[in-house]
Design goal:
Elements lengths: L1 H30 L15 E17 L7 E17 L5 E16 L2 E3 L8 E14 L3 E15 L4 E16 L4 E13 L5 H4 L4 E13 L12 H31 L5 H12 L5 H13 L1
Antiparallel strand pairs: 1-2, 1-9, 2-3, 3-4, 3-5, 5-6, 6-7, 7-8, 8-9
Helix pairs in contact: 3-5
């Protein structure tokens, strides 16, 4: 009888301890929720990075002929681009690139053609979701498939290209805030949206783009880079050690208060400070230390 009574008491104690632990975990989970939305708090907030650079493009248009060779137009263009790319939006980040081109060389069936107009230009736009792969922290690979549009002014017509493009690029973290970008785009387009659609329609059109750019970003700083990476790694290690010490101190103080143990003067002063001022969450502390390293 005594053994049965002792077993019942042990079961009740275990159940009470489990309930208390579940209540504590539930309280911690509630603290991690945003009171306004009810969803988990976002620690890594999304932001936008900007890229600038030079671009080169080769545009090919083909008009099929029966019983004879096809008519092939090729335009070589050079220009500059500006791109915007989001960060911390999962599972896909988004990219938008706008490019302004000047056609400097033009051929028809392999023979060079000379323009009749002095002012000729083109505008290109590419947008799509981006998947990023990290190779050894020093080379990042970006892959994307999205919408491609291009407007081109020629001697004869206003050409409008609309189609799909594939994007592949490399990000090379040179320094803490600086990144070199090298990428290429291949697009298959429908080229008969302009005035040439009724006068001289094309059967096929495709493009190849090569872009060389640079990025300067404070929020998107490179944790690993080719220049001064060892010094930055040491700073990050020091900040992480500081965070660990802060977490251990907070855990020790809270444990002492919960257990009802007498606290020393330093602990009592720190608890009084916590009661007088809003407590800063570990995520906010980590964000502040990381921002200090970035700056």
């Amino acid at each position: 009888m005594k053994r049965q009574f002792a077993a019942v008491v042990l079961l009740l104690c275990a159940f009470a301890a489990g309930a208390q632990q579940a209540a504590g975990s539930g309280q911690e989970a509630d603290e991690d929720l945003d009171p306004r939305t009810g969803f988990p708090k976002i620690t890594a907030k999304p932001f936008v990075m900007f890229d600038e650079g030079l671009s080169f493009a080769l545009v090919t248009r083909i008009l099929k002929q029966e019983g004879r060779s096809n008519f092939v137009w090729q335009d070589y263009l050079i220009g500059a681009h500006v791109a915007m790319m989001t960060e911390n939006i999962k599972p896909f980040d988004l990219m938008l690139r706008v490019t302004a081109f000047y056609p400097f060389y033009h051929t028809f069936n392999g023979m060079q053609q000379y323009p009749k107009q002095t002012i000729l230009y083109a505008f290109d736009l590419f947008s799509g979701p981006v998947i990023q792969a990290n190779m050894w922290n020093y080379v990042r690979i970006n892959l994307s498939a999205g919408l491609h549009y291009m407007y081109q002014l020629t001697d004869e017509y206003h050409l409008h290209y609309l189609g799909l493009g594939l994007f592949a690029g490399l990000e090379l973290p040179v320094a803490w805030h600086w990144t070199i970008l090298l990428d290429g785009t291949a697009a298959l387009d429908y080229p008969n949206l302009g005035t040439n659609g009724t006068m001289q329609p094309y059967d096929y059109a495709w493009q190849y783009h090569i872009n060389l750019g640079v990025r300067y970003s404070k929020k998107g700083a490179n944790q690993y880079s080719y220049i001064h990476s060892k010094r930055r790694a040491q700073l990050m290690a020091q900040r992480q050690q500081m965070l660990r010490e802060i977490y251990e101190e907070e855990a020790r103080r809270k444990s002492a208060v919960d257990d009802g143990e007498p606290a020393d003067a330093d602990t009592a002063d720190s608890i009084a400070d916590d009661n007088s001022t809003p407590e800063q969450s570990p995520a906010d502390q980590e964000a502040g230390l990381t921002q200090e390293v970035v700056m």
